[in-house]
Specification:
Elements lengths: L5 E6 L24 H7 L5 E7 L8 H12 L5 E6 L10 H8 L4 E4 L14 H12 L3 E4 L6 H10 L5 E3 L15 H9 L4 E5 L13 H15 L4 E3 L12 H11 L5 H15 L5
Parallel strand pairs: 1-2, 2-3, 3-4, 4-5, 5-6, 6-7, 7-8
Helix pairs in contact: 5-6, 6-7
Length: about 280
């Protein structure tokens, strides 16, 4: 693989002795701290020029603390160029004061309130929709993190928020392990029809068989997302360290690079670098 500059749009860092992460108890393989030095070791053979931290589903009482902690890390790691923070968007318009406080930190580029662990209808509740709408006022984007059965309602959410910039994490978490495509394919096509939605090429390996996945298992999903969104609205993300459940960092980069091997250098640069800078406004 040729050396290409990479912006990683989906990095997690956590410190269980510093902040509370209730979900880690159910994933013993990840239940330890993952810090800047670990990420540096994972990416040492690659040209990762910058990265975006994405909130790690801390205990709600630690949401602002997580953003403050990561901001302090950026003071010693210049590659940390953006934060996707947590906010209780289900509070509706009342969340504005919380979001305003986050927006005061220039590193905060967007918000993620995890949907994947909620009911199918969670993201179309009126108060949640109102909470998402508030992000446009502060120039913040929203990361949609769902499992594929929630994709239909995620489309309804996007439809009601035309002024918010959205990015779909992990291509909507299709069932790659069982090679299921519908209704994911039709719903991805519908979602891609909204010009304010990007799609993050991340998390595919953990939706495949962790022990025995092959690049060919992922290829049709990668190709279809690019077909629908085009090279101007897809971005690379590692989902590290969650991705380590299925492979090391380099293998995922190599797999995605091989999947677009026949594409132009400009298209590869858009996928791995340019679109990330544009979507998360990393040049500001």
């Amino acid at each position: 693989m040729e050396s290409i500059p990479i912006v990683d749009t989906h990095v997690h860092l956590w410190h269980p002795k510093h902040l509370r992460y209730p979900w880690l108890k159910q994933v013993p393989a990840l239940n330890r701290r993952y810090l800047l030095n670990d990420y540096a070791a994972a990416t040492e053979n690659l040209e990762v020029t910058s990265f975006v931290f994405v909130q790690c589903d801390t205990h709600p009482d630690d949401g602002l603390k997580e953003t403050d902690w990561v901001t302090s890390l950026a003071a010693v790691e210049p590659r940390l160029r953006g934060i996707v923070a947590w906010a209780p968007l289900e509070e509706g318009r009342q969340v504005a004061a919380f979001v305003e406080k986050l927006a005061e930190e220039k590193l905060v580029k967007g918000i993620r309130r995890l949907i994947q662990g909620e009911s199918v209808d969670f993201c179309i509740q009126p108060k949640f929709v109102e909470g998402v709408k508030t992000l446009a006022h502060y120039g913040l984007s929203f990361d949609i993190c769902i499992f594929h059965p929630q994709l239909a309602n995620a489309i309804q959410l996007v439809e009601q928020c035309p002024h918010v910039q959205f990015i779909l994490d992990h291509t909507g978490k299709p069932d790659i392990k069982n090679q299921l495509f519908e209704p994911w394919k039709q719903e991805i096509k519908t979602l891609a029809g909204f010009p304010n939605v990007f799609c993050k090429m991340s998390g595919l390996v953990t939706e495949a068989d962790h022990e025995s996945w092959k690049p060919l298992d992922l290829q049709p999903y990668i190709e279809y997302v690019i077909e629908c969104f085009g090279f101007d609205r897809v971005v690379y993300g590692s989902d590290w360290p969650v991705s380590t459940l299925a492979c090391d960092y380099s293998r995922w980069v190599q797999t995605l690079y091989d999947a677009v091997e026949g594409c132009s250098s400009e298209e590869k640069s858009d996928l791995f670098y340019n679109n990330a800078v544009k979507f998360y406004r990393l040049d500001k």
